[in-house]
Amino acid sequence: MGATAIAVTPQEVAKGLSMFDIDESLDALVEAAEQEAEGNNGEISDDIKTALATYTEAFGYKVDRIANYLKAQKAEAELAQREAERFQARYKSAENREKRLKQMLVWFMISRDTQKLRGAMNTISLQANSTPSLVIQETSQIPDTFYRARVELAWPEIIESLPPNRLRERLGKADGKTVQKELQRGILSDAVARGETIIGVSLVKASHVRLR
C-alpha cells in the first residue's frame, strides 16, 4: 500500500470506511509489513508505518464514534421513556377526572330523577348499563368454589407432603402467605345471574352518562 493511498487523516478514514473495512485494511497492512520486514532485514518503510498508525487510530476513532452513538441513542430512549411516563401520568389523571365527573353527574341525575341535562349545544343523557355489575358487600359467605388458589411451596415441601392426605392437611392449615386465593368474579356473576343466592353478593344494573 503506497503513500498515495493513505494521504488522509484517521478521522477521514473512519468516516469513509466501515469498521469491517478498516479492520481488513489493518490486516492487509500488517501482512505487507511482515513481508517487507522479511525482505528488508526487519526494516519497514515509513509509508507502511504511517499507514499502520493512521488505520490503527482510525479504528479507535471509529469505536469511539460507535460508542458515542450508542450513548446518544440510550439517552434519547431514556428521554422518550420519561416523556411517555409523563404523558401516561397526564392521561391517567385526565381519565380519573373524567370518571369522577361522570360519577357525580350520574348521582346528580338519579337523585333528581332527571334523564337529560340540556345545554345550548350539548345534551347529557342518563342511560342504564347494558350488563349489571357485581357488587360484593361481604366475602365471608362466598363459597370456596368461587375461588382459585395459587400455592407457593418449595419443592422439598411438596415431596415431603406426599401422600396426598398429608398435602391436603398442610394446605388446609396454610396461611395467606402460602396460599393466595383469587375470587373468580366472572363465575360468581354468572351464578348470581342464574338465581343462586349468595349472602353479601348481588348484581346491580348501574347507569352511565352519554354526551350528545
Task: Explain how this protein is built.
The protein is an alpha+beta fold. The protein folds into two domains: 7-114; 123-211, no CATH class. It has helices at 10-16, 19-39, 46-111, 155-160, 164-172, 185-193; strands at 116-118, 123-128, 133-136, 147-151, 179-183, 201-204, 207-211. A three-stranded antiparallel sheet has the order 1-2-7, with helices on one face. Strands 3-6 form a two-stranded antiparallel sheet. A two-stranded antiparallel sheet has the order 4-5. A hairpin with a 4-residue loop joins strand 1 and strand 2 (123-128). The chain is elongated, with a radius of gyration of 38 Å.
Secondary structure class reads alpha+beta
Supply the number of helical segments. 6
Low-confidence runs: 1-6
Topology pattern, helix = H, strand = E = HHHEEEEHHEHEE
- The tally of beta strands, per DSSP, is 7
Radius of gyration over alpha carbons? 38 Å
Overall form? elongated
What is the residue-averaged pLDDT? 83
Number of domains: 2
| Biggest sheet, spatial arrangement of strands | 1-2-7
Residues in β-strands, percent: 15-25%
Helix content: 55-70%
Give the distance, in angstroms, between the N- and C-terminal Cα atoms. Answer: 79 Å
- Give a quick account of the main beta sheet: strands, pairing sense, barrel closure: 3 strands, antiparallel
